[in-house]
Amino acid sequence: MEADMQIIQTKDFEAIAHLNKTVQDVHAELYPDHFKEYNYETIKEFFKSIIDRPNYIFLILENDQQNIGYAWIEIKEYAENPFKKAYKSINILQLSINSSEQNKGYGSQLMAKINEIAELNKIGKIELDYWHNNGAAKDFYRKHGYKTYREFVFKDL
């Protein structure tokens, strides 16, 4: 990993839309019945419409002044109800590193930054989900200590 690596919080929806291509391509390949092919214009407009939501944080990982990855996280507050206790969490909605830069430790750097944000906000839980056939995601998150505590199942009719 280069010494020029930095992670910045951003509102640059255009950069996020460009960086989204890697993760969107993986999803579209693994689950073509669910995911659309990457389309920069429509994805850019989507990110533009949500970039200022106060509970969303967008991080860009730069190396040598090149954007090579990003994370989209959400700070969530769950209210107490008759069944569950209240809690706060950070939900990792997307985390992606450009294909050519994977397996170089950049994803781990983004995870460390997310942990730092959780600690700064006194949030004791980070949650995420990934699609079952995404073995790379499963291996990555397990390497970082994530455990399954809930399963989402479906049945096609």
UniProtKB/TrEMBL annotation:
Gene3D superfamilies linked: 3.40.630.30
Chain ranges of the N-acetyltransferase domain: 14-157
Record keywords: Acyltransferase, Transferase
Superkingdom per UniProt: Bacteria
Presence of the UniProt keyword Transferase in the record: yes
PROSITE patterns per the UniProt record, alphabetical: GNAT
PANTHER family in the cross-refs: N-ALPHA-ACETYLTRANSFERASE, N-ALPHA-ACETYLTRANSFERASE 50
Official protein name in the record: GNAT family N-acetyltransferase
Organism, as annotated: Paenibacillus radicis (ex Xue et al. 2023)
Lineage start: Bacteria, Bacillati, Bacillota, Bacilli, Bacillales
